Write the structure tokens for this entry.
Amino acid sequence: MARRLLRLAAITLLLLVVTDQLLLHIALDDDAWAGRLVAPFDPPLFNAGQHASLERLAAVASGERQLVGPLRFDAELGWAPRIGEGYDEHGARAVPRSADDKGVPASERRRIVTIGGSFTHGDEVEAGDAWPARVEQLDPSLQVFNLGVGAYGIDQALLRLQRDGLPLRPDEVWLGFMPSAALRTLNLYRPALRHHDLLVLSKPRFVLDDAGALQVVPNPAASLAELVRLASDNEVFLQAMLPHDAFVAAAPAAYSPRGSHWSHHSGLARLVITRDEGRGRDAHPRLRDGNDAVAPLIDALVHRLALVCREAGVRFRLVVLPDGKALRDAAAQGTPSWAGLAEGWRADGIEVIDVTEAVRAADAAGRADAGSKAWAPGGHYSRLTHLAVAAAILDALD
């Protein structure tokens, strides 16, 4: 009986090994499973668009071609707008200054600088339809400079305010806080956070030291050439990203050079590390989790922004900009994922304007009326929702 059991175990093990190797060499021969790239990600590029983006960057870095498009490489911020490509001399989104046409002298207008990501910038709508421009249109006593940049985290918004925003001598600074984008503050390499993005980008971030103080981690690519090398050589990539990119650090085997980890030689193990690497991308449960690193870091960054503005003699306000995912999560859980953070900020004297109800109303109206869409095709606010957000912000101002 013992011999039979031993023989059966050996046969079963052999079958498992053979099946695993068939999976490795046949099913995963093209490094994909169900249309998804399978680890190891060597190089750390996840789709054809990223490969094409890296080729363009390499050509620009070598001088073979000129960089085109609205964004440019920025060693400090990662990426930034190109002046003249829809942006004025300050790097703000260029819009006609309607206040001038209404007879309000420039000296009497209150200067506002808005910072944030795509929901502040106004991705998928014209510059004049984004809520910062709408605020100025609805209240000609305000002059609004939109320094929002697509895909920015609060960390980049803070750095851009210090470099580009404060020299505009604003009276107020408004941060557009999109809760669904909170995880950007944990990330250095954009594709590691969002595999489906088309651009190859790296960025700085902040970390909390043992005393709870913010420390900046610079952009790991100081030049386009370094960015190309990071995205081409996994050993260089790991050395730069492993210490501080939370998503790379959570799955180092998935980003190690091909064949350097035992899991790379097993089809089943490759599927497992691919699955594990893709977890933890939903910001809302992590914002609610008191043991997660996200909420404390967001809180520290907002307090740093408030301090920077206070030291510059500038009024600071935070505008909560929920997307569709945030609305659905709040409805399912009964309370917004950012409620605890917002309560703490208000208790600390930080002015918070939450436009959730205005966005929810626009969403409900859009669902009821096929001719009134609340969302652009890519999930950003439509021009009608931007207008509703602007009106809600002005209603909340004292």
Notes: The chain has a mean pLDDT of 94. The chain has 18 helices and eleven strands. The CA atoms of residues 307 and 316 lie 9 Å apart.
